[in-house]
Design brief:
This protein has 31 helices and 16 strands.
Length: 724
């Protein structure tokens, strides 16, 4: 047992205590703590930690940062005034607290380093000395990573594919004790790695064999074959027999397990759900319950399907009827995830927050990476709506550390409607979001799912790919429309609503308001889905605004103003939507030349953005005010809003700063603002306007001259300029 501060760390079992309290931490965080305790007072480079604890993966950097944050949080450590972990800029980290062994004698301790990432951990044996000169030895113990690939169905009958879902479920239950099972969703990018970097893979193939079937399995260099008389045969026994053969053992005859009724229909339902959607899957789950009325997994899937199809009353009843008291940790985690997502869609964020935390606890107990990542993703989604930015950032970082760019790629569309895109970067400020890596991951996923039969996963990948701002417009539009076609045939009305709504936002960004309305008018949303209905109304108003601003259509502007005012009058409108609507309404008045109303609304929006720490969108309100001050011939007031350090990538902020500085003959500010603008991508049009403005020095400060400048509403999201 190692002692530091008020804490005790069981190095053999990887358990952290504070007096009698036991901490529940991710295995990777405990491994990191073990590493620090084995190397106290030493400066450890980030590269060393990454090399020793994360062998490969595009999420390694974020994984380390998140694990450091979680460890500090557990210890109550302050990064600015650390007691345990000191960050040394450009150098790494240092454990600065003395470490003692519980006994004052030489003691050798084994630190069991259980794997929680995508590859086995390699920590070389090292001897370190604590303040009492006790020796602590770190020895390598590995738990190999394993990817179970979807079964290849070569029988020529697609309906037989359900058997692969059944086998995979049984195999996962057995293999999770001896292997670190990798998330199924990571299959596309893992298979793109060089062969020597790929994890171990279990490959299953089902082939026809006269009137029977032949099941083949391959695990690394080991092979096994089982003759299956018919597919209704007990697949639990067959899976166990397969594992015995792969391990070089002989299956025992006394291992017979009676098959559970309804399981075949349940797995047929899972196949239909993944390949076609809830419309075809629903009858299978209902059939499973006829044979096994108390089958909880089927009941849970039907609860999820009910609200995806818009039947909220039925969904509530199904969730309420479920008794998961004696269910497995995996099923409990799924229950809380499904229920939390349903409550989030209904706007019941407090309940959703509680269930997201319950899902995380159960998922951590199950040690299934994908479940843990999904729980963090749900926590992030809820935190977003509750304006809890620190919780949002931590949860997104945790999800990213577990499954990489996919945690952003498959995030739901509602955050994409945030005014200051890209949404996954967060409203507080810039983050380490790697859109290039996300684009690559999604490209692999689309290629993979096109070859498989999983149309729903293909639709999710296409939808996420279309939202990536690095994807060319020609590709993103095609991707979104293909996703819409798939989900329209799936029976998942909620998913269809998301795609249609995002298409509306997508065309608004392209200043195609009429096309945006075409898709927004197709959305059918149950008003009980508060957030979705609110977002739809905001986007319809934005579409009218775009038509009005682009074509100087006064009728469209007035229609937009009416809808913005309706949103502002509703007492239940969320803070984010209310503040965005306030700024957008200001833009319509700016177009109409009413500077007084535009300024009043913009000041209100800026105050709310700052009050709720919505910093990225606050930049929009700030440079809108700058524009108003310039229009009024008040360049000094415009300059007072300039923050070049904070807004160094905001094109219009730098542009207006240069204009105001030129008007006041502030040469130093003008030079700095212009230089900063010139290094940004896609800044050439603004620089040209700036040159033309300066060349007309004889008519300097004229309103006609200023009217030629780009207005704040010339762009609806900074991604147009920040990202190619």
């Amino acid at each position: 047992m190692l002692l530091f501060g008020p804490f005790r760390f069981d190095a053999e079992k990887l358990v952290l205590y504070n007096q009698q309290d036991r901490y529940s931490l991710r295995p990777k965080v405990l491994q990191l703590l073990a590493y620090f305790l084995a190397n106290p007072h030493q400066v450890i480079k980030r590269e060393t930690l990454l090399s020793d604890l994360w062998q490969h993966g595009e999420y390694r950097e974020a994984a380390l940062t998140q694990s450091i944050n979680e460890l500090r949080q557990a210890l109550g450590d302050d990064a600015q005034q650390p007691t345990y972990i000191r960050t040394l800029p450009q150098q790494g980290y240092q454990w600065i607290c003395d470490v003692k062994a519980q006994k004052c004698a030489r003691k050798r301790l084994k630190l069991v380093l259980a794997l929680c990432g995508a590859a086995a951990i390699t920590v070389g044996t090292s001897i370190v000395t604590s303040s009492f000169m006790e020796k602590v030895e770190v020895q390598e113990i590995q738990k190999s990573a394993l990817l179970i690939l979807p079964m290849r169905n070569e029988t020529g009958v697609q309906a037989n594919a359900w058997w692969g879902y059944a086998l995979e479920s049984v195999l996962k239950e057995h293999l999770q004790h001896t292997h670190q099972l990798l998330p199924k969703s990571q299959t596309p990018e893992l298979l793109k790695l060089p062969t020597e970097e790929q994890p171990s893979q279990l490959r299953l193939t089902l082939k026809p064999m006269q009137q029977r079937f032949l099941l083949q399995a391959k695990l690394d260099s080991r092979h096994a074959e089982v003759v299956v008389e018919h597919l209704d045969q007990n697949f639990t026994e067959i899976a166990q027999q397969l594992l015995f053969m792969l391990q070089g053992q002989v299956a025992r005859r006394d291992d017979h397990i009676e098959p559970s009724p309804g399981l075949a229909d349940y797995y047929r339902g899972l196949q239909a759900l993944n390949e076609f959607g809830p419309q075809l899957a629903k009858p299978y789950f209902e059939a499973a319950l006829i044979l096994a009325p108390h089958h909880l997994p089927s009941q849970l899937e039907l609860a999820q399907i009910a609200w995806h199809q818009g039947d909220i009353t039925h969904a509530r009843a199904r969730f309420a009827a479920l008794d998961i008291t004696h269910a497995s940790t995996v099923l409990q985690a799924r229950y809380y995830l499904y229920l939390g997502a349903f409550q989030k869609a209904l706007g019941e964020f407090s309940q959703a927050e509680k269930n997201a935390q319950s899902a995380l606890i159960m998922a951590q107990q199950s040690q299934q990476i994908e479940l843990i990542a999904s729980a963090y993703q749900l926590k992030a989604d809820v935190a977003w709506h509750l304006l809890q930015w620190q919780d949002y950032t931590m949860a997104m970082n945790a999800a990213y550390a577990l499954v990489g760019s996919r945690s952003f790629a498959y995030s739901e569309a509602q955050r994409s409607f945030y005014l200051a895109n890209p949404p996954a970067a967060g409203p507080q400020g810039k983050s380490q979001l790697n859109l290039a890596q996300s684009k690559k991951v999604l490209s692999h996923a689309i290629e993979y799912y096109r070859q498989s039969k999983d149309k729903i996963d293909l639709a999710k990948s296409l939808f996420a790919y279309g939202q990536n701002y690095l994807v060319p417009v020609s590709e993103s539009e095609k991707s979104l429309l293909e996703a819409l076609q798939i989900v329209s045939d799936s029976g998942n009305s909620y998913f269809r609503m998301q795609v249609l709504t995002y298409l509306g936002f997508y065309y608004i960004q392209l200043h195609k308001g009429e096309k945006a309305l075409y898709y927004l008018n197709q959305v059918e949303v149950n008003e009980q889905f508060n957030s979705a209905a609110e977002q739809l109304n905001l986007l319809k108003a934005m579409a009218f605004m775009d038509i009005g601003l682009t074509h100087s259509d006064m009728d469209a502007i007035q229609a937009a103003q009416r809808q913005f005012n309706v949103l502002l009058a509703e007492p239940d409108t969320s803070v984010m939507t209310r503040t965005n609507a306030t700024l957008l309404l200001a833009w319509t008045w700016l177009k109409l030349g009413n500077l007084d109303k535009a300024q009043t609304l913009t000041e209100r929006a800026l105050a709310d953005y700052q009050r709720f720490s919505i910093n990225e969108a606050a930049t929009y309100a700030a440079y809108t005010q700058m524009y108003i001050h310039i229009m009024r011939g008040q360049p000094e007031r415009a300059i007072s809003l300039v923050d070049l350090d904070k807004n160094k990538d905001a094109h219009l902020m730098l542009f207006y700063s240069s204009i105001a500085a030129h008007m006041t003959q502030n040469n130093a500010l003008e030079k700095k603002s212009t230089e900063m603008l010139s290094v940004l991508k896609n800044s050439a049009p603004l620089l040209q306007q700036l040159d033309e403005y300066k060349q007309q020095a004889g008519r300097r400060n004229s309103i006609k001259q200023i009217m030629l400048l780009d207005a704040p509403y010339s762009v609806y999201c900074q991604s147009k300029w920040v990202l190619e």
